[in-house]
Amino acid sequence: MKIAVVGTGYVGLVTGTCFAEMGTEVHCIDIDTAKIDQLKEGVIPIYEPGLEEMVVRNYKAGRLNFSTDLESVLDEVEIVFSAVGTPPDEDGSADLKYVLEVARTIGRNMRNYLLIVTKSTVPVGTSRRVKAVIQEELEKRGADIPFDVASNPEFLKEGDAVQDFMSPDRVVVGTESERARELIHRLYKPFMLTNYRMIFTDISSAEMIKYAANAMLATRISFMNDIANLCELVGANVNMVRKGIGSDTRIGSKFLYPGCGYGGSCFPKDVKALIRTAEKNGYDMKVLKAVEAVNEKQKEILFDKLNRHFNGDLKGKTIALWGLSFKPETDDMREAPSLVLVNQLLEAGAQVKAYDPIAVPEARRRVGENGDRVVFTEDSYGAVMGADALVLVTEWKEFRMPNWEILKRLLRTPVIVDGRNIYNREDIDKWGFTYYGIGQ
Questions:
Q1: Are 314 and 350 in contact (CB under 8 A)?
Q2: What pLDDT, on a 0 to 100 scale, did the predictor assign at position 92?
Q3: Which residues 6+ apart lie within 8 Å of 392 measured at CB?
Q4: For the chain, counts of helices (H) and of strands (E)
Q5: Which end of the chain has fewer CB atoms within 10 angstroms, the N or the C?
Q6: What is the per-residue pLDDT for 369?
Q7: Cross-strand bridge partners of residue 319
Q8: Beta bridge partners of 117
Q9: Looking only at Cα atoms, what is the longest distance across the chain?
Q10: DSSP secondary structure string, 276-323?
Q11: How far apart are the C-alpha atoms of 273 and 117, rounded to whole Å?
Q12: Active site residues
């Protein structure tokens, strides 16, 4: 089988590469010439464990191809996946201009049957618009060519995307025809040899499943952050509360970890988009609005703890940050809590020294060195040297078991703010640190 994947961002590149790994001949298409040239050289635009090696291997084998010309491959392929970006508009709704432009290009140039599959996260009803655009372009040409549209939302976790794709817990596909269903089934069958995990729905339901899944996960995070903040006020320990409620099989333990707020490319954008979709249909998503509000406030909690410790005077203080990406195993800083914290610290007159195993180049691009007030170091202990406090922002594995003796010696004052609750208060107390967790 031959397919095309339009868009070589996070979703498109992982999708195309993993299909190629299973023997499918894949054409990855992107309008960014520089990106395509880099991919041909084995330089990938994102950090994702295991992806670079897989890209290089399949490109050399001839199963994975890169091009800027979608028109040239349409006669060769049976399926076109649209995995282009859907950035939020000013009102928070998803911007579909790239999705619809792909549809126009297909409608103007297709000559044989095609199945057009939307892989991007898009609002309910997008596939209908894609179908209408393609049909409109065909009518302009006076062409009567059969085609199908389908929705196949992605559920990839950044930092574990390759494994998620190669061994998915479910594959959701919304289709309208048996022909489309059979094509998708054949394409995904190699991933389902030991456990069939495909869920076929109507197209609108498939589009909604993606948003509803991310909204549910975001809701659990904000709920636990709300509970954590209350725990601090009443003297409870959120870690014990989390274990207690997570042991209930109706609730489960996943996504019950409090922290300093969620970020990334999915949760913030998708929650906003679902709220806007509801508003356009005359419905008020009160729960999700609260989820969004709690999350935005939670991103300020690390600064609030520091500010209280230093009695509202952070001017001239040096604050060390461990972790900048929104989560471990990625360099993605979109909507990252670290960005909020850095801005607040600078506004308060503090100096920032920061370290992240992967995300420093992206942080430099987003934050800038800002004179000598933001310094990025090459290792974790370099960030701590001479600092008045250490803030754990992202729970990278290398931060889990620091040398407390070295930290005590390097810090000007022994203050630790643990934004992810990865440390044991009893262990830290033995070394004489002042420790602040979340919900403890």
A1: yes
A2: 65
A3: 322, 323, 399, 416, 417, 418, 419, 420, 422, 423
A4: 17, 14
A5: N
A6: 61
A7: 352, 389
A8: 81, 150
A9: 79
A10: HHHHHTT---HHHHHHHHHHHHHTTHHHHHHHHHTTT--TT-EEEEE-
A11: 20
A12: 266
Residues 6+ apart with CB under 8 A from 240: none
- The span from the CA of 153 to the CA of 137, in Å, is 25
Q: Are 318 and 388 in contact (CB under 8 A)?
A: yes
> CA distances (Å), 86 to each of 96, 404, 415, in order?
6, 44, 41
Asked if 339 and 308 count as a contact pair (C-beta separation under 8 A), the reply is: no
Of residues 107, 55, 56, 58, the one with CA closest to residue 80: 107
| Residue 83 near residue 5, CB atoms below 8 Å | yes
**Rounded Cα gap, residues 116 and 134, in angstroms:** 10
For the chain, the residue count is: 440
pLDDT at 90: 61
DSSP-assigned letter for residue 167: S
Can you tell me whether residue 65 is helix, strand or coil?
strand
- Cβ atoms of 323 and 352 closer than 8 Å: no
Q: Which residue ranges in the chain fall short of pLDDT 70?
A: 89-92, 369-372
Angle (CA) 184 190 192, round 5°: 85
Task: Give just the sign of the alpha carbon dihedral 197, 203, 207, 212.
Answer: negative
**Paired tokens of 148:** 């199908």
| SS3 category, 387 | coil
* pLDDT (0 to 100) of residue 371: 54
Cβ atoms of residues 416 and 388 within 8 Å? no
